[in-house]
Structure formats: structure tokens, C-alpha cells
Amino acid sequence: MDNKKIYISISHLMFNVIKNNKLKYYLRKDEAFRKEVIKLIDLLLLLESDKFKCRYNRKKIAAEFAKVYVKITKVSNRFEVPEDEMNSEEIYAEYSRVVGFISENYKTARKTLTNEEELFTIEDIELNGKLSADFVKKMDEKLADEAKEKAEKEAKEKAEKEKTNSEDKKTTNSENVNQQNFKQQNFNQQQNFFGGNMGGDMPQNIFLNPKFYPFKTKPKYMPILKKCFTLLMLITIVFYVTLVIYVGTVRVDLDYKNQSSLIHVLLPKAKWEAGFEYWIVTTSANAKVPSFSTNVDIFAKSTTNIGSIIFAIFYLLWFGYIGYTFWKKQDASRLKFRVSGFTLLIVAVFVFFLLFETAGSISNDLVMKKWNSYGSLSIKLAGETNPIPINDFNYYDDFIAKLTLNYASQLKVVTSLSICAFVSSILTLMGAIMLVIINPKKDVQKIMKARAEQANATMAAMQGKHYEIDSSLFDEDEQK
After folding, report:
1. Burial of 329 (0-12, 13-18, 19+ CB in 10 A)
2. Stretch 116-133: mean pLDDT
3. Helix/strand/coil percentages in the chain, nearest 5
4. Which residues contact 156 (CB under 8 A, 6 or more apart)?
5. In the chain, at which end, N or C, are there fewer CB atoms within 10 A of the end residue's CB?
6. What pLDDT sits at residue 182?
């Protein structure tokens, strides 16, 4: 919570009070009101202290409001910084409580009390610090007339009620009715004690109201950017899914029984008619190959890559769902002008994975590196103790050259799809970063105010009273 903003809000509340003749009248007449205004001035003194160092147009105004208070009320009072340690949230909650007190007790709209559009000076404070005797006299007469009318009305209602009660006593069922009323009243009191709302309707949760917009800004081009980002996501995943499916269809034959198989280029001196085993031979160790696939894809993977295809389709569906939420028309401003940070995080994780996957196949050389393990492949003939040395047997360079030549057109398609997926992944990641940067930030002050208003409305409902929540909390665009 910004201390400066709280200081400004309290200052405007004080100014809105002293420029309203009716409120000045009640300030003079009502001791409870005077106590609340004294608290506000004390809070201004606290915020002007060395701890917070707040100012209004670089000037301290708490003392000016104190002087005006004395002029209006004609009562001297001691103003001082509160002794209790108070943080920003507690100060704001006190401010919000006083706004509710004034609005409820003196029938003044909250929007009038919290209006901060009119700038004022110390001279304006002094000019408004007067309450004419004529206005006081007029208000006294008005309130006296209202009190008289109210007393007459109550006396009339009391007489009618006594007459009705007298007639009811003559009926034989009056005792039963009274007992039932008593039981019902007792039941209602128990309900209220154990969590009932004391006759009032519980208010709707402000934070669930689609008209509540708890952010500072509304980026004008956010809806368009979200649609562009959707297109980037879909283009990226379509390129990736196409790449994965296509790679799975480009098969390389390594079956020694087939004379045209590339295994004969890799191991041209092998005696296939004799018994043999495949081994990986390196300078540090030799290891038997547990299983050797005779049919692999262009990435040297032995399986049909079903797992990658399933994941790719999952990504397509997930990105499609996110795109749908971005593209469809949103009625609530919080959905229209903002993107969920969690959604962007999920997208970023997926895109990083796609970058890693596609970066390894954007050129022929990178694709061929996936075959590096075949450069250590050898065989051990039946009856031999050790595998045949690589230098005498493995023709890896010839194998790679033949593979590149035989699959030149397929490699061109693979690298083209990889480049497209890689570039679109980078653009998508950049788009996600841009959305994070322009994403509206939370309006902490507005959220704190909403919490205070929610608490006030709930308390009023618990007491069977009606409480009007400050309309400035809700988005004007949504109200039209």
C-alpha cells in the first residue's frame, strides 16, 4: 500500500467534509463525528512524521485542518500522532471505516466523500473553514420539525398498536400466538448467534463480481496482441506436429539381409553368414548392444516415435484451448485486458521444449549428429573373443555420405520444417515476454479498499442493515 496515496485520500476526505455545510453542521453538533475527524487529523500527523514523510503538494496540511476543525466546532482539542504503531494497511482500513461511518450516519454518498479530482490549497482549506450562523439556525429548525413529525408519527403508531393489542387480548388464541412469536424470535436470535445474517442479505463477494477490475491499467491493444499471440502459438505447434509426424515416416533400412541396406555401407567387411553380435566399441570400454533395430527413422530412433506424436498432439490441443480463450469475446475487463501469468508460464515451458527439440535438426549436419553412436558400432563374430576393431571394420564416413545422398529430399523437408518451427518458437517466446511486460499490474490500493468495503457490507448485513458498496470500485465500462 502506497503511503502517499493513503495520505492523499485522507486529505481529500477531510477537504470534502469541510466544504460540505451539512457535514460541518453535524461536525459541530455531533460529538461522535468530532471524534472520527480528530482520528483523521491524527492520522495525517502520523503520515507527515519522519516515519512516513508524506506531503500534499510538498506541504504539511494536518495543522491547517486542525485549525479549521476548531473554527467549525468551536471546541479546542489536542491533536497528536497516535502512540500505537500502525502500518499502511491499518491506516487505510481506519480511513475506509470513517468513510463508511460518515456515509451511513449522515446520508452522504461515498463517491462524494472519496472524490479526489478537485485539487485544493491551504487557502482553500481556510476559505471553507466557516459555518454561518444562518445555516446553523436553518438546520436547527429543520431538524426540530423533523423530530416533531417523527414523534407525532411514533405516537400515532403506538396508539394504533395498543388498540390492536387490546383487541387481540380478547381472542382465545392470543396466548398461543404470543408463544409462537416468542419461539420464532428466540429461534432467529439463535440463528443470528450461530452465523445467521440477522435479517440482512449477505453481500455478493466483490472479488467474484465481473465488474470489479483490480488492476491499474487497461492496455488498449491487449485484445489484438492476444489474438496475434494465438496465431503464433498455433503456427508453432502445427510446424512441430508436422515435423514429428513426417520424421516418423522417413525410415532407414538397416537389415543386413537386404543387400541394398545401408548397414552394408557401414560394415562392408562383415561376414553376415557367420554368427555375430553387435557391439559398441570405444577407447574406454566395449559394450554389447542388447537390441539392434533394423528399421529406424531419419533421427536414428528405433521406435515409430508414437510418444512424440502423442505429446505433439497434446500440445496442439492445449495451445488450441489457450488460443480459444484469447480469441473469443470477453465481457469482463479482467479477462479482456489481461493474461494469466500462469498461462504464460505454461506456454513458455512448452515453447522452451520445442526450441530444444527443433534446434537439433535445423541443418543436415545437425541431423547427422544423431547418428554418432553408429560410428562406434562393430560386430563380434562367433568364436571370437573380442569385437573387430573399428579402424579395421567401421566405415562411418561413407555411411553418413550415402545416407545424406539417399535422403537428400527428405532431409530438406526435415530441416525446412525444423527451421520454421524454431523461428516461430522464438517469436512465440518473444510474444509471451511482451505480454508479461504490458500485463496490467495489480492495484493494491483498490484491492485493499475492496476488502474494507466487503467487510463493512458484511458487518452491515449481520446487523440487518443495508450497506451501499462504493460504486467507484466497479468498472465503468462494464456498467454501461
Report:
1. exposed
2. 89
3. 65, 5, 30
4. none
5. C
6. 44
The DSSP secondary structure of 279-303, one letter per residue, reads: EEE-SS-EEE-S---SEEETT--SS
Give CA–CA dist 273/206, Å, rounded.
82
pLDDT digits (tens, 9 = 90+) for 79-92: 888 877 788 888 88
Sign of CA dihedral 63, 66, 71, 72: positive
Query: CA-to-CA distance for 213 and 206, rounded, in angstroms?
Result: 10
| Dihedral (Cα; 417, 418, 419, 421), 10-degree rounding | 80
pTM, full prediction: 0.56
Predicted pLDDT of residue 225: 87
Closest to 198 measured CA to CA, from 468, 471, 460, 467: 460
pLDDT at position 185 is 47
CB 67 within 8 A of CB 18: no
Please report the pLDDT score of residue 404 as a whole number: 94
Q: Are strands 286-288 and 276-281 parallel, antiparallel or unpaired?
A: antiparallel
| Residue 374 C-alpha from the chain's centroid | 51
Q: Which residues contact 200 (CB under 8 A, 6 or more apart)?
A: 460, 461, 462, 463, 464, 465, 466
CA angle 97, 101, 105 (to 5 degrees): 170
Cβ neighbours of residue 34 closer than 8 Å, sequence gap 6 or more:
27, 69, 73, 75, 77
Q: How many CB atoms lie within 10 A of CB 340?
A: 12
Determine contact, residues 20/37, Cβ cutoff 8 Å.
no
Q: Which residues contact 222 (CB under 8 A, 6 or more apart)?
A: 336, 337, 338, 339, 438
- DSSP type of residue 214: -
Over the stretch 151-206, which tens digit does the pLDDT of each residue have?
Answer: 677 767 776 776 665 555 554 444 444 445 444 444 344 344 333 444 445 667 77
Report whether pLDDT(368) > 90.
yes
What burial letters (b/e) apply to 424-461, b meaning 16+ CB within 10 Å? bbebbbebbeebeeebbeeebbbbbbbbbbbebbbebb
Beta-strand pair 295-297/286-288: unpaired
Count H helices, E strands: the chain?
20, 5
- Residues contacting 253, CB < 8 A, separation 6+: 260, 261, 262, 294, 295
DSSP notation for 19-49: T-HHHHHHHHH-HHHHHHHHHHHHHHHHHHS
Q: Given phi > 0 = left and psi -120 to 50 = alpha, else beta, which region is 119? A: beta
End-to-end CA distance of the chain: 30
Q: Per residue, what are the HEC states of 144-205?
A: HHHHHHHHHHHHHHHHHHHHHHHHHHCCCCHHHHHHHHHHHHHHHHHHHHCCCCCCCCCCCC
CA-based torsion, 134, 118, 445, 212: positive or negative: positive
Question: What DSSP line would sit under 437-465, residue for residue?
Answer: HHSPPB-HHHHHHHHHHHHHHHHHHHTT-
